[in-house]
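Design a sequence for this backbone.
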């Protein structure tokens, strides 16, 4: 169901449930994501599968669906011979697919257009390091066309997510300036530092100074680190916190995901106590995890 109120207004009243990892749900549906474009390839080759993945999360209780545009860039598609106009259509499609999935459930669902970091386009794991050797101005020029295209597609919010570096956060916020769409910004981080090593207390000063930012926090972090990081975000920005950690497993380009899953809905109380009002999961967190969170929120 299309929402009747702005997401920011609802966040002022209660916790809102995000979805989980799109890629792991696509893989569970039998999709092959061994490609530099990752899930973004399916915007062209398998849009129905993306819509089905969104629908699985909506039916699990997710109130916000994050689009399949994280790794969808003009540069990445151009390497495959996709024209600029065709890429614009694919980015627009990412919002349309999430909106269609939202219409399959009776509860309100907001659509968040994902704007991933520059490192996602490189497909080499550098979104977990940052420090690409580019200036803020260069990063702004990279991000602006995609931000403008996604904003024009009419999402409810732009998700500036998995940001490893305060310099890239500044570039993303500049790229989104004047787009007319509310934003949230989430770093990928440890408990107290960005992946590039900057103190989170300093990094969150950037969204704090941006009126369009309705929430700030972390994603694709270890579940155990989320509460501490969100408490810093909430204190610095004065906005609702965001927490959508990964499963707790560790990813490397050479070996993929390794280690034990430590994501558990039992951490919900810690995340809300830290100030999180947008809560869900990232990589390797699936519909069942979101359904478990939905039950806990209903009983709270």
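Sequence:
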């Amino acid at each position: 169901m299309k929402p009747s109120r702005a997401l920011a207004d609802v966040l002022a009243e209660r916790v809102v449930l995000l979805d989980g990892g799109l890629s792991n749900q696509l893989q569970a549906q039998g999709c092959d994501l061994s490609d530099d474009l990752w899930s973004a390839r399916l915007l062209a080759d398998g849009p129905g599968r993306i819509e089905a993945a969104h629908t699985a999360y909506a039916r699990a209780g997710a109130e916000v669906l994050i689009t399949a545009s994280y790794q969808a860039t003009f540069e990445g598609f151009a390497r495959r011979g996709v024209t600029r106009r065709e890429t614009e259509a694919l980015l627009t499609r990412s919002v349309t697919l999430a909106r269609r999935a939202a219409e399959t459930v009776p509860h309100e669902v907001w659509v968040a257009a994902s704007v991933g970091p520059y490192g996602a386009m490189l497909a080499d794991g550098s979104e977990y390091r940052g420090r690409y050797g580019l200036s803020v101005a260069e990063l702004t020029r990279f991000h602006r066309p995609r931000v403008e295209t996604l904003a024009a597609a009419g999402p409810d919010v732009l998700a500036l997510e998995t940001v490893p570096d305060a310099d890239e956060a500044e570039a993303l916020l500049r790229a989104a300036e004047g787009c007319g769409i509310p934003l949230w910004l989430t770093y990928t981080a440890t408990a107290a530092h960005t992946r590039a090593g900057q103190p989170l207390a300093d990094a969150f000063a950037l969204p704090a100074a941006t009126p369009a930012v309705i929430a700030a926090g972390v994603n694709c972090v270890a579940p155990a680190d989320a509460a501490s990081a969100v408490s810093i975000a909430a204190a610095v920005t004065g906005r609702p916190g965001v927490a959508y950690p990964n499963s707790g497993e560790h990813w490397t380009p050479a070996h993929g995901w390794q280690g034990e899953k430590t994501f558990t809905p039992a951490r919900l109380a810690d995340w809300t106590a830290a100030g999180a009002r947008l809560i869900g999961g990232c990589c390797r967190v699936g519909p069942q995890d979101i359904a478990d969170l939905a039950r806990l929120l209903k009983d709270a």
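The chain has a mean pLDDT of 96.
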